[in-house]
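Journal club prep — side note

Before the paper discussion, L.F. wants everyone to see what a predicted structure for a comparable chain looks like in token form. Sequence:
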Amino acid sequence: MCGILAVLGCSDDSQAKRVRVLELSRRLKHRGPDWSGIYQHGDCYLAHQRLAIVDPASGDQPLYNEDKKIVVTVNGEIYNHEELRLSLHNHKFRTGSDCDVIAHLYEEHGENFVDMLDGIFSFVLLDTRDNSFLVARDAIGITSLYIGWGLDGSVWISSELKGLHDECEHFESFPPGHLYSSKNGCLRRWYNPPWFSEAIPSTPYDPLALRRAFENAVIKRLMTDVPFGVLLSGGLDSSLVASITSRYLAGTKAAKHWGAQLHSFCVGLEGSPDLKAAKEVADYLGTVHHEFHFTVQDGIDAIEDVIYHIETYDVTTIRASTPMFLMSRKIKSLGVKMVISGEGSDEIFGGYLYFHKAPNKEEFHRETCRKIKALHQYDCLRANKATSAWGLEARVPFLDKEFVNVAMSIDPEWKMIKPEQGRIEKWILRRAFDDEKQPYLPKHILYRQKEQFSDGVGYSWIDGLKAHADQHVNDKMMLNAAHIFPHNTPTTKEAYYYRMIFERFFPQNSARLSVPGGASVACSTATAVEWDAAWSKNLDPSGRAAIGVHNSAYEKHLVNGNMNSKIMDSIPLTNGVGGHVGISRSSAYINKCSSGSSATLAQSKEVDVGPSSPRPLAALAGPSIAGDPSTRSSEQPVSSNQVPNAEVASDDNHVLAPRPVGLCREAAERAEEKENNKHLKELVVWWKKADEELRSPSHKVKTLGSDLLLRSRPSATCPNCAYAAAFGHNLSLKFSMFGHDKAAAILKIHDLQKELRAAKEAKKACAEALEQGKTEGFSAGRLVGRTEGLNNVARRLADGFDQHRLDSSLDTNLQPYPEEEENVVAGSDEFEVLLAEVGNRK
């Protein structure tokens, strides 16, 4: 994306004014780092910061007609420029730029040419013959644009707020699908599709027509003279974009220049749902896949930069923009200048989970219309500015003008979500690409539940943001929020925190008015909140706020977007997902089990985060979010009657939580029964709770000054269930073996601090003991731990099944100990023997 700035009729043609315009234009240089240009005609200035995508050699701006009487500065891409050139056979073009047609079209057709453009654009056109000017923005508002007015009567146009907010008395977002003409001095809409009136359409659903329309939308966006790729989250929308791109790339001009193998990019917290799904799709399509990790702290550190570039204080936009902002920087560092992305599908097809509660097809359709009309304030703003911050362009085929018209003309009855008929969200899009002969995607990806981008990168991302805001915004500040921020008053500490940062950068009243507000749940409009009475008590834009719909929906203790403070205290912000047992993993675990595969029990990924000092085991009991034991509060212990067929275990020091009897075997058997999926989910949730809460000391071993408490309690009725754990000061190791005919083990090292040497030796001893030991139900298990430098790496889990592998790593950010490699810790043999004896005793 380029950056444009225009000052029109400022009554000042001095050199000082030109210098000031250049200074303001440089604020947009991140959008266009390739070249800068400025044109002055009297008291009118047109400045441009170019990101060269098409014709990098000669397409510098501003652009002109033959006699240079008509001047244009443009941000965008015109996909049908070759067709338009052919229609302008009497004109001579100075460059090969796709935007070069705009000046000539105006010369030929006047102000009515805008609807002829197929693409994304924001432009200012100056006609020096009569000193008139024309400003226009694309149909949906994919490119960002603002308009302002100065006290001297000047009109200002800028791609971003930062280009004009210091100079204008009033400014606002330039509405999409509109043009502004100086000849009449007002805005008028040039884009008037049938759906805009919100009349209910009646066209029957034609899956092949829908498929062809979207394929055409993707293909036309392969127009590029620079390296490009696709953003791939592993969800339906981005996966379809990647699939179609890889299918049709070979015959394009871009493939001749840059090769026919597609590059794909994904970002997330380590272990997030998106990373895993994206990798699977990339492998299926054969793309060159690039996976970028970030931690919660990385994201928090970038928040101020994100708000400065995105220019909003909207909570959901900031949540989603931050990972995209970080990923865009990585992508640009690889030499890529353009990416194709999947924004817009959820608005068109009602893909957000709150659409499950749409009362009828009329309300469903009207809500999709409202969502599309507001895209320029949310997802389009995010996709445009988060990528442009690093000189990267994002193209969004779902918002292709022709495709939107096709999709929005379908009878909304086909879009309605009807689980009893097997129709989940965006069913008509999934069905259109469900090709048995030449499949576009694996079935489970094609029918994967919707994840909002800010959720899919890792649920602990949002939880970490809330925890961080809670540390910086106190209750007294919230009490006075309505007086400090009377417009769009923040209702959560997270919103208050973002608002404070925004006001530092953009203190003008016009700036705060440019950001939308209103109640929202799971990204709904305020109108749709009324669909479910319970939603008004849980106003949070995350998809997990759709209680009763999302597989990992928030529990009752989440009120008004705030989590229990004790829960928040359990989320360390220093190492991202490594420090928080993600709800995403519990969700993925349960979803897999419900699909009917018994192997899922052996593939579950739990993470046990050890405390920096010993804490009572009973503190681990309590209610959890979506069955995730990591977020339990110590104030509400679990009683034995909460777990079916449970026994209560205890020792001299602690009252322990109930232990399941044969629960893993029952869950594994039920995984074979597809008709009992709902009951199985409940069993799996109980198993995860009970497994975490199971504590029964068997032996105590003292090694190198660290007291390690070793426990091993196999289930009484399930021969394939065994539990072993070693806890110590600043050390927590968890080995969990369960499942029917299969076993899984999870190892997590956290906060080793000064016991690093003891921890490494203990880990080695545990690994060797478990490899050699024979315990009930675990005769073929093998766990290998390995340390690389100061990074503790837990890898290579094999239990006789090659398909089960665990690969996880944790950067502990520890400083090296002197002579660390030279000091061989003694006592490991004794520890190994003791550990083996405990296993044999069982």
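L.F.'s comment for the group: The CA atoms of residues 469 and 494 lie 5 Å apart. Keep this in mind when we get to the figures.
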